[in-house]
Amino acid sequence: MGAKSSIEWTDASWTPIRARNLETGKVGWHCERITTGCGTPTEGGCYAEKMNLRLGTGLPFKPGHRKDIEIFLDEQMLLAPLRWKKPRMIFVCSMTDLFAEFMLDEWIDRVFAVMALCPQHTFQVLTKRAERMRDYISSPNQKRRVLAARDDVTPGVGSGKYNAKAALDAGARLYSGPLPNVWLGVSAERQQEADERIPHLLDTPTTIRFISAEPLLGPIDLTRIQYSDEITFNVLKGPNKLPFGHFDGATLDWVIVGGESGPNSRPMHPDWARSLQKQCEAAGVEFFFKQRGEYTWVDDSDYDNDAIPELPPNWRERTDDKYICMRADGSRSDGYGGDSSEFLYRVGKKAAGRLLDGREHNDIPKAHTS
Ligand code: SF4
């Protein structure tokens, strides 16, 4: 994928690691589900896998299929950002996970080499494998290896166009600290995943740290990330005295929130999104509300929204989950009583829209200027 992206918080997607089905020869992508946010075949699910089933290798994202495919670095796609002159925000590996177990370090080195050679762009690297990302970036050899990969990559731009200055500048950027045009993020769908992954992100050297809480599947308190039984962090507002000791001032710079979309989507309680928005507002952290997801709710801002159907009298007996009533702890409610219950209506992502309490939230950190 190297096309314009329909994802609201980026301009383009770029997935240079591809997969070829050994039996059919069809080329697509590969990844492996590792967490509840990836979904299952019957609950929620990964949009990249769905696209791969339709338009790619035709195989599900399961480790068992590694034997049925050849995973490879697509050299043409790898060099695409070098040809894009107009600055773009680029979502890296939107169709897989750059830090998945099957990714070779040498491929990741080449991806970083291209990012170093393209200061005009801002690269958004999002992973569910926060620990491997931390280990890769912090490795003492990483810069040396990326520099070597840069020398492999630059002649590929075109023999007559080899740009020695661009290569030198990329080398200088690599050695002057984290690449200013590379933002690193982790997915966090519930408190549990936020607790597991965000401390690794804070321990990773980078200029911008972000989380994508999509699909948001439960409440998350970013002011109390549980690192261990004794230690909690407010990851929105420092200073945090981190036990690993490298980046004491590290906090999050950006929070993206969205409900799940597509068939079999799981609902998001609006209080989960509202709470994250308020936490970010209180801490002065950029907040982006991507979408309500497949389900919507009634609130003061869109009470007359035609997309919201009448609640039928027999809604409790229905088994299709078109109408549900959910408490803020995620449990189902019968719709009575004054608890945190909210009626949620499955109307589809487009009809549900992007409003949270009456407005869009489109904050994105400022890109560096090269
Ligand atoms: S890590 Fe991302 S791309 Fe991979 S299976 Fe999970 S949701 Fe899909």
Task: Report on this structure.
The chain is globular. The strands form 4 sheets. Strands 1-5-6-7-8-11-12 form a 7-stranded parallel sheet. A 3-stranded antiparallel sheet has the order 3-2-4. Strand 11, helix 9 and strand 12 form a beta-alpha-beta unit. Helices cover 25% and strands 17% of the residues. The protein starts with 11 loop residues before the first strand and ends in an 18-residue tail after the last helix. Helix 4 packs across helix 6, helix 5 packs parallel to helix 8 and helix 6 packs antiparallel against helix 7. The protein is built from 10 helices and 15 strands. It is of the alpha/beta class and 370 residues long. It binds iron/sulfur cluster. The site of iron/sulfur cluster (SF4) has 10 residues, from helix 1.
Can you give the helix content as a percent range? Answer: 25-40%
How would you characterize the largest beta sheet?
Answer: 7 strands, parallel
Query: What is the radius of gyration?
Result: 22 Å
Low-pLDDT ranges: none
Tally of helical runs: 10
Query: Which quaternary structure do these chains form?
Result: single chain
As laid out across the biggest beta sheet, the strand order is 1-5-6-7-8-11-12
Strand content: 15-25%
Indicate the mean pLDDT.
Answer: 90
- Bulk shape: globular
Bound molecules: iron/sulfur cluster
Cα-to-Cα separation, first versus last residue = 25 Å
